[in-house]
Design a protein that fits this description.
Strand 9 and strand 10 form a beta hairpin. The chain has 414 residues and is an alpha+beta fold. Strands 1-4-5-8 form a 4-stranded mixed beta sheet. The protein has 3 domains: 119 residues; 115 residues, Butyryl-CoA Dehydrogenase, subunit A, domain 2 (Beta Barrel); 141 residues, Butyryl-CoA Dehydrogenase, subunit A, domain 3 (Up-down Bundle), CATH 1.20.140.10. Helix content is 48%, strand content 14%. Flavin-adenine dinucleotide binds next to strand 1, strand 3 and helix 14.
């Protein structure tokens, strides 16, 4: 039986996260009010976060790890508590934070990005015991960050088209190539780099790509620039240049020629996180719009009396209700069924990212000119929601997966 009740345990976690945010995060947010209101003060001239803000983000990670939040969704084999907190808890907890705080960079830092491109990513299961001993404590404590280097200038949706090559020289691999759009590349200590190790297997699309753990050394593996997106003056997304980067054989993650085996570990939970953030953000926006509509007067009445405004509120509510129930049903399936519900995971990724954008956009409209200001914080959430339709599989690639599943006979909705 499907049960969407929030368990007492999850309620307690949400309450303790709220206490944590009040004590550890809110004072930091106050320090950066100016930067939150105007991105000109958040980024340096290269588009990276200013040093003070990087330090603040690190402080949140360290404190979160100390309090046990940072690793709570990680696999037990890596020192996490993922066996206690499955996809339903992941969804409810991420939703609750976004719903209450909106899109706050410092609050978002409590958990690793998407739970799979950083922190205790399941990809780390593929490290040798020696390397695990070196890397894991730093990652677990929030001291060091990882980034996930798969996409390239010529390879986004079509990941088989990567050009980065790794060639064996003695007991080392020498890697050359460029990675693009990599979240946290400007701030990470290590990159998980996917490179071609057997071009023939790649040409048949049957393997031949290997994942490597590559430290940023500032010479052969560098974060060469930040990519500002959607009008921002900086971002978390960067380009990685690899020029004869040498790593020992032991830096292979998982099996040689089977990098995608490692890469796909965790993508599913990443999509649950993204969907939950979208469902939470949409509720945050709707609550703001309702409050505003009750106060703002035009033509002698508050705007909540105008049917046009009521229609927009109702559209938002229907969107949120649909997205939230899809998300929870999918998370429940992930927890209770043996096979991964691939069709549903793609549906929640595509639907909720588009839904959050529609909802935030309507809420901005309800608030008129004020909706466009930084003061109401809609525009930041609007840009964020818009950007979520591209990473971790675009909306079109998700639809392709859904259609493929349907055509293979997976056409029920139980
Ligand atoms: C904010 C952000 C963060 C990111 N973080 C990371 C990261 O940490 N690590 C990483 O490796 N990558 C990351 N990416 C890259 C991301 O995964 C790619 O941008 C994404 O896969 C799309 O690839 P592309 O941009 O090359 O678009 P393309 O693949 O070139 O697609 C262009 C358009 O064609 C459509 N399209 C492509 N193929 C098909 C098809 N078969 N059928 C129908 N339509 C199709 C797409 O949906 C899209 O509309 C990030 C991107 C962004 C924007």
């Amino acid at each position: 039986m499907v049960e969407f009740k929030v368990s007492e345990e999850v309620k307690e976690v949400i309450a303790s996260l709220e206490r944590f945010i009040k004590v550890e995060v809110a004072p930091l947010e106050e320090k950066f009010v100016k930067a939150y209101q105007n991105e000109r003060y958040l980024y340096d001239e290269n588009g990276e976060y200013i040093k003070e803000f990087q330090e603040a983000l690190k402080q949140v990670r360290l404190k979160s790890a100390e309090a046990g939040f940072f690793t709570m969704f990680g696999m037990p084999e890596l020192g996490g508590m993922g066996d206690e907190f499955g996809p339903v808890a992941v969804a409810l907890i991420h939703e609750a934070l976004m719903k209450k705080y909106g899109h706050s960079l410092l609050v978002q830092e409590i958990f690793p990005p998407g739970l799979f491109t950083g922190g205790l990513t399941p990809v780390l299961l593929g490290l040798t015991p020696e390397l695990r001993e070196e890397v894991l404590p730093k990652v677990k404590s929030g001291e060091s960050m990882l980034c996930f280097g798969l996409s390239e200038p010529d390879a986004g949706s079509d990941v088989w088209n990567i050009k980065t090559r790794a060639v064996k020289e003695g007991d080392h691999w020498v890697i050359n190539g460029t990675k693009q759009w990599i979240t946290n590349a400007p701030y990470a200590e290590y990159a998980i780099i996917f490179a071609i190790t057997d071009p023939e297997l790649v040409s048949k699309r049957k393997g031949g790509i290997t994942a490597f753990l590559v430290p940023f050394d500032g010479e052969t593996c560098t974060n060469s620039s930040v990519i500002p997106i959607l009008g921002s003056v900086g971002s978390r997304v960067g380009i990685i240049s690899l020029e004869d980067a040498r790593v020992p054989e032991s830096h292979i993650i998982g099996e040689l020629h089977d990098g995608f085996g490692a890469a796909l570990h965790g993508v599913d939970i990443g999509r649950v996180v993204m969907a939950a953030n979208c469902v939470g953000a949409a509720q945050w926006a709707l609550n703001q719009a309702i409050e505003y509509a009750k106060q703002r007067e035009t033509f002698g009445v508050t705007i909540d009396k105008h049917q046009a405004i009521q229609m927009m509120l109702a559209e938002c509510a229907m969107d949120i209700y649909a997205g939230r129930n899809m998300l929870l049903h999918c998370a429940w399936k992930m927890e209770n069924q043996k096979e991964l519900p691939l069709k549903e995971i793609s549906m929640i990724k595509a639907f909720t990212t588009e839904m959050a954008f529609r909802v935030v956009d309507r809420c901005m409209q309800i608030c008129g000119g004020m909706g466009l200001t930084n003061e109401m914080k809609f525009e930041k959430v609007w840009r964020w929601a818009r950007s979520m339709r591209v990473p971790d599989g675009t909306a079109e690639i998700q639809r392709r997966t859904i259609a493929r599943r349907l055509l293979k006979g997976d056409s029920d909705f139980n």
